[in-house]
Specification:
Layout: E1 2-5, H1 11-19, E2 28-33, E3 47-53, E4 58-72, E5 75-87, H2 97-112, E6 117-123, H3 127-135, E7 139-150, H4 159-162, E8 166-168, H5 173-184, H6 197-206, E9 207-213, E10 216-221, E11 227-233, H7 236-248, E12 263-264, E13 266-273, H8 279-293, E14 298-303, H9 310-316, E15 319-329
Parallel strand pairs: 5-6, 13-14
Antiparallel strand pairs: 1-3, 2-11, 3-4, 4-5, 6-15, 7-14, 7-15, 8-9, 9-10, 10-13, 11-12
Length: about 350
């Protein structure tokens, strides 16, 4: 077995591993992307290693860390964001030796680039990965919920206020950076908007627009051109109800129940700023109307329970996926404090 840097020749095999590792329990979704390296390309000098069984010509696992400059304890610190960490499900179970070897290889690259910590998001019920990370010294410092809301029903019936929500398709990056710094600059993991040229380009490509109502606002992140979510499994009751719901939806507004193999289209809402709690419903309704026009099935927003507007957003969510924010210090550093900043570009 060897641990080496991933190359473009590995693209098809890495995508195949992703297809074998769907997310969810009863409802299983598999991510599909044209280029496995699209996430790594967001970072300058990304670390993306694979463990390979040379005899079998099989990739056993992959691990990525993207160097980032973020705030921690009021100071800008150079760290690494964990992404694309997967073990081939056809490889051995338990605590795979290749995952330990991958981590050791990543640690060498972290030390070479003088990164002072790594952090990432792990689904709360992913006990296997959390167990591995704890063995590597990871600590849980925050919890995020990805609140998923279908777009079949209105979030607000106050059409007079909803009509006042402004949708801006392009924004001034420097002005936006100043707004975010004022709102979120005191949070740990807050990142400067100008990092790599590729990340700056992705921020432009994936921004559908910014919704504003008085002093409140939220932005829409659209990656459907690069990523799709496809349904691999769902509870039997959904399969049974689907024909009736589909027929009834032509008369009344009902959520879409996809078939197995169908694609799910999602918009991520991010950088929420609320002047008044009820403003959220006007923003959501305007986002819903735009989503319907663009064949989007769900709106998702990532929040901590301590974030302003959490209770309002959670009341509209049909699914609430919990993720642990984990932190692995490589040097003496202050522990991050919750709520931490969520940078949508890490998705």
């Amino acid at each position: 077995m060897q641990v080496r840097a991933a190359t473009a020749k590995d693209n098809a095999r890495l995508i195949a591993i992703e297809h074998m590792t769907p997310q969810g329990e009863q409802i299983k979704l598999v991510s599909e992307r044209k280029d496995y390296f699209v996430r790594a390309k967001k970072f300058d000098q990304p670390i993306l290693l694979v463990a390979e069984d040379e005899a079998q010509e099989a990739i056993l696992g992959v691990m990525g860390v993207g160097p980032v400059s973020v705030r921690l304890g009021g100071e800008v610190v150079r760290g690494g964001f964990i992404f694309d960490w997967r073990s081939n499900p056809l490889a051995q179970q338990g605590l795979p030796r290749h995952m330990l070897r991958l981590w050791q290889g990543v640690q060498k690259e972290i030390a070479r680039q003088e990164l002072q910590f790594v952090f990432g998001y792990v689904k709360a019920d992913n006990e296997r990965t959390l167990g591995l990370l704890h063995k590597f010294g990871a600590k849980k410092v925050d919890e995020k919920e990805f609140l998923t809301m279908p777009v079949h029903a209105r979030f607000s019936r106050d059409q007079a206020r909803v009509s006042q929500v402004l949708l801006t398709r392009t924004i001034d990056p420097q002005r936006e950076a100043a707004i975010l710094r004022e709102k979120y600059g005191n949070l740990d993991f807050f990142s400067e908007i100008s990092q790599s040229a590729d990340l700056m380009q992705q921020r432009q490509d994936y921004l559908f627009g910014k919704l504003s109502y008085e002093k409140s606002s939220v932005k829409i992140w659209d990656t459907n051109a690069e990523y799709t979510q496809r349904v691999l499994n769902m509870p039997l009751v959904y399969k049974v109800l689907r024909p009736a719901v589909h027929a009834a939806s032509k008369i009344v507004s009902l959520p879409r129940i996809p078939r197995l193999g169908d694609e799910i289209r999602v918009w991520q809402l991010y950088d929420l700023i609320l002047d008044q709690p009820d403003h959220l419903f006007y923003l959501l309704e305007r986002a819903r109307l735009a989503a319907k026009e663009n064949n989007i099935d769900y709106l998702v927003i990532c929040m901590s329970t301590g974030d302003g507007g959490y209770e309002q957003a959670a009341s509209k969510a049909w699914v609430r996926l919990k993720y642990h924010v984990i932190f692995v210090p490589m040097t003496e550093l202050p522990m991050p404090k919750a709520p931490t900043y969520f940078d949508v570009s890490y998705l």
